[in-house]
Amino acid sequence: MLEEPKKIIIDTDPGVDDAMAIFLALQSPEVEVIGLTTIYGNVYTTLATRNALHLLEIAGRTDIPVAEGSHVTITKGTKLRIADFVHGTDGLGNQNFPPPKGKPIELSAADFLIQQASCYPGKVTVVALGPLTNIALAIQSDPHFVKNIQQIVVLGGAFAVNGNVNPAAEANIFGDPDAADVVFTSGADVLAVGINVTHQVFFTDADRDKLAESNGKYAQYLCKILDVYYSYHHVAYSTKGVYLHDPTALLAAVTPSLITFTEGVVRVQTTGITRGLTLFYNKQKRFGEVTEWSDKPSVKVAVTVDAPAVINLVMERLTNS
């Protein structure tokens, strides 16, 4: 008997690679996308909502609700850094698409997450592709959320490698380090997919050409928006291609066998020069004194990824769309 598809909510700041991840999810029979929640990151939250609605219209999936998320961090800080130089000022490669017809639902992102987790306890996975504010708010406002949610797959962190905002921090964690620390210490089933793993998944210029040659609806759309993203990578990393951060995290939720992980405590540095740093404690040493690390629940941290399999799935699903 076939397993019923896993229900997922994608918390997203679209973003070129978010668009790719959302389309990939819609093309994955293993999962059912039951909602998108929006957050600042690549763009401000208002534009993230607009882009999420737009992508669902492109996909012909306006049946999927969009809940608008927080405009500020959990400590009420505003978003200072928008990655428009990576994704274009509209977040989608400066294509200036017409505004979507759809509107977000009345519920906030955090309330929608709480509602869905309590409707389907143990059945909903959140795939968090941006800063973790909405998820932290859900954890703080509903004591049952952590037990009700099946898993939180986090695209975030840089475990034992340099960050991508600065040497210490990865962008999603840096966007709201306090929220990230709440999520990592909440006791929920958390899987962190950091840039130490996503930087292994490289989508080359040749891969893009293959996408462009296919008749896939999503493939064609993505090729239009990928230019700015490619140019940024050519300049910033001197590469002939792009890293597939969001699609890798999404596929870790869809097909967990693509990655391996280790387990331990993760804390996030919230102040100073290393603000946004994710530090993994492997629990091999038992320390004598009580510290901020004592009695914290373990999370899973991805260590390896089957990069060729990820690229193949991305190609196959987007070209057959």
TrEMBL record:
The keyword Iron-sulfur does not apply. Its EC number is 3.2.2.2, 3.2.2.3. Pfam families: IU_nuc_hydro. This is Inosine nucleosidase. It comes from Coffea arabica (Arabian coffee). The keyword Hydrolase applies. It comes from the Eukaryota. Gene3D superfamilies: Ribonucleoside hydrolase-like.
